[in-house]
Structure formats: structure tokens, C-alpha cells
Specification:
3 copies of one chain form a homotrimer. By secondary structure, chain A is an alpha+beta fold. Chain A has a single domain, classed as Hotdog Thioesterase (Thiol Ester Dehydrase, Chain A, Roll), CATH 3.10.129.10. Chain A is built from 8 helices and 10 strands. Chain A has a 10-stranded antiparallel beta sheet with strand order 1-3-4-5-2-7-10-9-8-6. The longest helix of chain A is centred in the N-terminal third of the chain and has 16 residues. At the A-B interface, strand 1, helix 1 and helix 6 of A face helix 1, helix 3, helix 5, strand 6 and helix 6 of B.
């Protein structure tokens, strides 16, 4: 008998529903371990009292813990034989996850596109995470390049789904009792609110962090992501452990605290590109660009659409692409997402 | 004044009872940290709801956390001056340990056998873990080779205990309200139940994991195991940190998920041999052999006796020993134990 | 926009009150992660039942977790541009911190002293930690050498606060319902109590621990200490990660268990000097000197004032300084503090 060796391109069917094992109960401990892995300091995830003053029932799990947990569960069924994780789109967080809640994950196959080489194909899935009561907590689309079992197999009828490039501000809803009416700026670490950020502005997050091999191993296991390339040094020809892309998302988000201290909650993920692979001992710096703004005009809640970028060099010019529109070689992550941020009353 | 330098062979007496310091309260956090160290995905330890559907009061601590915690407490009194940890036998888990419970450990000296060299001797102990109410949770026998204080001391009256090589299926009891009547196979990750495994069959667990130095250090400290060879690079002539044998047991058990997804609970430990030492950056693969089967004929509960093997090479032939009956040099663990597994109704 | 680049010497004013971001809720998980990082085995922090038998309401967080948490919060405002963390004094712990409590940190600028070079100056602050109810849990003074923004700026009126070198025994109070009346010595790991230690006596803690790079990274992040030199290998000319001094305090305290098993609670910090920098793969040994004794003459509670020393070599002579009174090059920490220890009834 042989354990799961993973699916190949031919093993997917359009419309197929996949239930992913194993449900995972998240606790206070997952928040603390997350804080021991990433230099994050956002007040909502750090302080129970701060979170409750914002209308949460308890200190919620960091949204990226929820994202990684759902993602990790999809790996054995979707990306064990993936050549590359190509992109995300249409990601939305629907409700907070509190300590003690359990996440289950499901995916629907949206599209299949055989590559011209015949060796592999793109698999598009819509994945969702539900809590123990079957309530939706997160939904996102991703597409991966998956090996074919029989490379020179017959012709194939491609189906590529239409994807929106970003979650429009008109789609944004505040699905829970969030409020920023009694927001303590000094405890949050900054008095910069919604009105202090301008569309087109760049924020330099100053700090850098050199990734240690242990950082991503503990993180990736915590989310029960069992992709071989992260753990088995025999899985790649260079015998290196490839760092899980989501690790970089969390690291860049944590670094972004310095300059975006009040951007408390990740609310939607429009897209993410892992531009270059990352290995231990690389040092990551981050900057953000304000792409869009939206004011809910309720309970002091507003939103920023940000592009946060991870880079292997500290670049004061915060340059993303070269003249031909190609990513610079130092860029490792281009992440487009919405955050919730308080709108402070005008200062005199 | 000098702290504890550990006992020597002469310091033990047959029948002696040793109370080990320090009691340890285990929590949800220990489960989460365990999941961040080992790639484990068994549903009972991962999901509170899954565990409760199986009759548990809460998500139990992984049984191996309990084993390592008891083992760790015995180290200062039993194996601080051990040359080698030679074997385990007659291990039984008597009840689940839930978050918030506290483990105490005790040992009784069962046997003493001086080696012919006169430099060392075998110490046989029966160790047990109790919870905060004094209820037995785990019992096992182990024997270690311990240095003598005075190598050329007088002759010694050996006493070697009789040990059963395995826990017989007739000794197995289900000591708690376990039931597999409403078992969710898709969430557990596989539809292979008791009837799908045949005595003599081998299961290839496919995945490998390269051990990083940080993995075993965090694990071994978590269990308060203070054996010098794991932590002080001056303790061995090669200046390497020796990996705690129990780390390999947990790693092989975690890897065994792939192929034994429904083998939810480790129930008894018949024996374990750490065949070769292991150091950081070694990659471990695993396979299992089904040694015996037992059907409780109650609440869909059945048991498999498994030999799970850890190997430094991925060997499709799953070979354990050479023609002379000696372990192959790539073998690092030979672990013989019972697991509880559901018996599914026959599929048409 | 640019994130916080840290304050310079000119940015402080005598008497200024600084509220530090971000509050941090500490949980059982922080205790468990602490135990996975340091080889600590003190019974009060390890066992809920043991702690409650000593009068605690629950298992308290290790006092050094509280110290590091408060310290970490002060870093962005006090020591981001620090050249050196020079000393601590007058540290007192006022009440236990239990899982679920939230720590906020505040500092008052006590003194400023420009260095003769004009390039930097000493900043003296009194920092305090409060719980979610605004109750004081910890207070201490520290002084750091901070870079000047404009090195050749005008003359400066120095103000240096008077600091007591130690917390006098007459200042010691037991601020909570602690009692050692039903103390279980065998579970604590030793029968050595207050009367077994003599002023002037040295205790050899026997064990050593080689620090792995991952150890201090996880610890320092856990306390949200974002000082660049610990995380960004570009921050120092030697491209090494400097180990946070507090990591050594925790490691030496953990090693001191072997010989001071009943020194359950750190109660006051008189002073601490980080004599030499420490990097990964250094091995740390520890010894302690009994400096002073104090008997509360109530509920079997007594106190020892200890000097615990961390050393890069295992020195049976336990020598601290050379003939000229300079620290030996192997010494890395000289830590002066009070611990609470039970006074056992005289043994016959």
C-alpha cells in the first residue's frame, strides 16, 4: 500500500468539489506562535482588550493564520505535484476566527488549461474555509501549474474562468460588529489614520528581517502544509528548502506595521505574485503603495487598498519594475489587498 | 554547592521508588507547538469537534506528548549519565490527557545488571505518569546503560526482570468512552479502515522530512528533557547535538499519516529500538508493516499492531535487516506499537 | 511616508512620559513557548496545581516573560538607535501575571547625559508594566547609550538620576497570597531550602547549553522586541545577529534550576550587566553566589539575594573578575536579583 502521492493534472474535473482533510482547531497558542515567528505588532491581534474595544468578542486569530490554515489543507489535494503556485484572486474574509474555533477547507475546480508543452496544466480552484458551524470565514481563488501524469496525452478542452482582478470597494462589507469609535491611538502605536494616506503615496516600512531556516519550517508545519519542497532537501535539485510563499506574505504584512500601524485588519486579497523564490538567510525589506481608498462612513471605519512589496534590497526609491515592465530581480512579493483602518476626527 | 550531576549505576536499588520533578501542566499550546514541530495531521488531535464526535471530552493532547513529558521527567534521575537508551517495552496508555491537566512521573527500579567490563550496567525501570488526580495515564518499562562511579568495584548480584515483548491483544482495553460510530472519513483524510489493512502488508508513507537543528531542540526542551548530549555541543567528542530518540518516534508517527490516516490513537508501545544515531540535516522517510490485527467488536473500534520504521533513505523495498539479521545502516528506528482505527461497514 | 526610524538623544526631555505600543495579552501559550526555548523547570511555572498550592490563583507567567514583554515594548521608543544597553536597577515585580492578562508599558525619562564625544548620550528611563486593570506589575530603571541626531550640537545640561544599587531587603514585600506552608519538595526537585544556603556560598549549576540561532529569534520576536541588530544581518558590520541580552538572563535563570530548584520566584532585579556580546553557537554555563538572605518570618517564605553569572567556559573556580577588577573575557552576564524560596522546618 502506498500513501497519497498527490493528484496530477488529469485527475481534476471541472465543477468537482473536494473536501480537504484535516479540520484544525485554532487557539490562543496559534496566535502566540505566530507572534514568535513574525515581528507583528498590530494591536487587534496583540491585545484582547484592544480587540474587544473594537467590537470583537475576543482577540481574533490573525487573518493570515486563517488564510494559511485553509491554504495548507488544500495542499495534499491541489498542489502536492505543483510546479508553481501562480496566483491568487478574489480573496475575501467574511468573519473573524476566535480561539477555539475549528477550520475546515473545501475547493471547487473552476478551470483547467493544458500547457502547450503537454507536460503540465493550470488548475484553477475556488477554495473556502468554514468554521465549526459551517459558516464561511474565507474564500479565494488560486491557480497552480500541476504536472501531468502522462505528458503526451490527447488534446484537452480548456476552460479558463473569468477572474476579477480585484475586490471592488463596492463589494466590501463589514460583516461583524467592528467599530473604531473608541480607538486608542497611543496603544496602537501611531496617530496616522485614513486621512493621512493619499492614493499614490508610498510608505517605506524601514525595517528588514533576515529569514532563518527555522522561521518558515515552524510556520509551514503549523498550517499543516506538507508540500515536499519546503521540508525534504531531496525534493529540489539544489537541495535547498524552498520557503512557502505565504511565509513572505506574513513577513511583509508584519514589517508593514512600521508605517501602517493602524491598518488593523486584512479584509480582502485582490492578488498576490511570488515574483522570485526565497531561501533562508535572504533579508526582506518592505514598502507599500496606497492604490485606493474607501470610507464606509460608519463607526469611523475606512479601508485602504494597498500594494505591499517584499524586496531583497532596501530601496528608498521603492521601484517595482524595470522600463520593460518586468519585475526587478530583487522583488519577491507583489501583494494587493484591502485593510480596515480607523478614520480619525480631523485634527485642528 | 553543586547541582545534580546525575546518578551512577551504584546509586540504584532494586525496588526503589523515585518521584521525578517537576510536574508539568499541559495545555492547548503544547498541542499547537507539537504541530509546529512535526508534520502531523491526525484528526483527533487536530480538531476539537472531530475528537468530541469520537467520544473525547475535548481535543486530547497527542499521546506522544504525554510519553515524552513522562520520559523527560525521568531523565535527571535515570539517564543523565546514560551511555545509551537501549529499549522500551510494555508501554500502555490508560486515559486521554486533556488541556489543563498536569502530569507527574514516578519510576520503580526493576532490575540491575552489571556489564562484564565492570564500567557500566543496565538499569531497568518501570516508569509511570499520573494526572493531577493521581490517575494513571501511562506506564512503560525502559532500560538504559548507565556509567559506574567506580568502574572496578566488587562483584554484583544481577537481577534482570522478565519483560513481555509485546502487549498482547487480549490485554488491550478501551479505557474511555471512545467510539467510531459517527466517523467522518473525508475530514480524517482517507477511507481506508481496519478491513483495508492485511497482516504482513507494508505501507509506504511516501514523504520525507529533513530534520533541522531547531526542530529537536524546541521539542526536547518542551518536554523538559535536560540530557546534556542534546543541548551542549561540548558533551560529545564530535561536538554535535545528538537528536533525542523520541523526536524520531514523533516524526515517524507524523509521516505515517500518509497511508495510515485513520490510525488515530497510539494505544500501546510494545518496543522501540533507536538503531542508529541521528543528527540535524538527516532526512527521514518512513514505512510500516502490519504485524497483527484485533477487532474490539464494539463501537466500530479495532486495532492494528504496527512496526513503523524510520530510514535515512527512501527504500521502495522497505527492507529492515540484512541476510545476517542485522539492521541495515540506513535504518534509524524500529518501533512496534498498537493503534486504534475505525472498522468501517463493508463497502459494496 | 516613512515608518518610525527611532528617536535620537535630542528627542528626549526630562520628565517626559512615553506610552509604548502595543499592549500584549499573555496566555498559557507564552508559558509553553518559553519552556520550549529555555530549559526551565521551576515548579511554580510548570504546574498549575503546584502554583495553586503556593497561593497563586492559577499558574502564573514566568516573571521573566513579564520583564521581556515590558522591555520589548519600550524598544521602539527608547532603544531603536541605542549603541548599547548599559544597565538595569531598582527592578521590582509587584504582582503575578496570569494567563489572559494584558500588559501595557510606559516609561518616564529620568536623566540625560551627553557623552564627552558629543556623538551620543545616556538616556535613563523608569519603565513600568501595568495589567489590563491599570495595576502595576513591574517597574525598573534602565539606561542606554543613544546616538545623537546632530553629533556636534551645542552644550547640554546633564541630569543624572540617583539610583540605588540594589533593592534593600527592607523594601521587599510579599504583595500577594503566597505561602510555602504545603510545599512539595519532591515535586519541586530538591530538599534544599533557605537554611541550606549560606551568604558567600557559590552554587555550580553544572549544565551548559549551546545557543542555537533559532532560540533567540523566537524568543525576541515573542516579546515584540524589534531591535534591528537581532534580526537584520545587515545591521552590524560583522553581519551577525546579536543575541538580545535578556535571552541570556532567561537562559542563566533556567540553568540555575540545577542547584536552586526551590528558588521559585524572581522578586526584584538589583542590577544586570551584559559584560560581553553573545552569538549563536556560544555555549553558556552558569553559577550563582549567595549575596544576602532575608527571612519574612511568615508562611515559610524567605528570600535570597543572588548574583547569577553566565560564562562561556565551565569554570569550577567560579571566578568573575581578574586581579584588576575587570570581568574575565569568558563572563557574559552578571545578574543581581532577589528570589523567593521556602524555609523548611529543621530536619533532625
Amino acid at each position: 500500500m502506498t500513501g497519497n502521492i498527490g493528484r496530477f493534472f488529469e485527475d481534476y474535473e471541472i465543477g468537482e468539489e473536494i473536501s480537504h482533510a484535516t479540520p484544525r482547531t485554532l487557539t490562543e497558542a496559534d496566535n502566540s506562535i505566530y507572534m514568535s515567528i513574525y515581528p507583528t505588532r498590530f494591536a487587534v491581534n496583540s491585545s484582547k482588550e484592544f480587540a474587544m474595544a473594537c467590537g470583537f468578542k475576543d482577540r481574533p486569530l490573525d487573518e493570515l493564520i486563517v488564510f494559511h490554515t485553509v491554504f495548507g489543507k488544500t495542499v495534499p489535494d491541489i498542489s502536492l505535484n505543483a510546479i508553481a503556485n501562480l496566483g491568487y484572486a478574489e480573496g475575501k474574509f467574511f468573519r473573524p476566527v476566535y480561539p477555539g474555533e475549528t477550520i475546515r477547507a473545501y475547493s471547487t475546480v473552476l478551470g483547467l488549461k493544458q500547457n502547450s508543452s503537454g507536460n503540465s496544466g493550470l488548475v484553477y480552484v475556488r477554495s473556502r474555509g468554514e468554521n465549526q458551524n459551517g459558516k464561511l470565514v474565507l474564500e479565494y481563488t488560486r491557480w497552480v501549474m500541476v504536472k501531468k501524469r502522462k505528458p503526451l496525452d490527447i488534446n484537452f478542452k480548456n476552460k479558463i474562468p473569468e477572474l476579477s482582478e480585484n475586490v471592488n470597494s463596492c463589494d466590501l462589507q463589514i460583516p461583524y460588529d467592528l467599530n473604531f469609535l473608541e480607538y486608542d491611538k497611543s496603544m496602537a502605536g501611531s496617530d496616522k489614520g485614513f486621512d493621512d494616506y493619499i492614493v499614490g503615496e508610498f510608505v517605506d516600512h524601514v525595517d528588514g528581517c533576515t529569514i532563518h531556516e527555522s522561521d518558515h519550517l515552524f510556520a509551514t508545519r503549523l498550517w499543516q502544509n506538507n508540500s515536499k519542497v519546503h521540508f525534504d532537501t531531496n525534493a529540489r535539485v539544489d537541495n535547498k528548502r524552498l520557503i512557502y510563499g505565504g511565509h513572505i506574505i506574513s513577513l511583509v504584512r508584519a514589517l508593514s506595521f512600521n508605517g501602517l500601524e493602524n491598518a488593523q485588519i486584512v479584509f480582502a486579497i485582490n492578488g498576490g505574485s511570488h515574483v522570485n523564490p526565497i531561501f533562508a538567510e535572504d533579508t526582506i525589506y518592505a514598502w507599500s503603495e496606497v492604490l485606493e481608498k474607501f470610507d464606509f462612513e460608519s463607526r469611523n471605519i475606512a479601508a485602504l487598498r494597498l500594494r505591499s512589496v517584499g524586496s531583497k534590497v532596501q530601496d528608498n526609491k521603492m521601484q517595482l519594475k524595470d522600463k520593460e515592465g518586468k519585475y526587478l530581480p530583487n522583488i519577491i512579493l507583489d501583494f494587493d489587498y484591502w485593510v480596515l483602518i480607523p478614520k480619525f476626527h480631523k485634527r485642528s
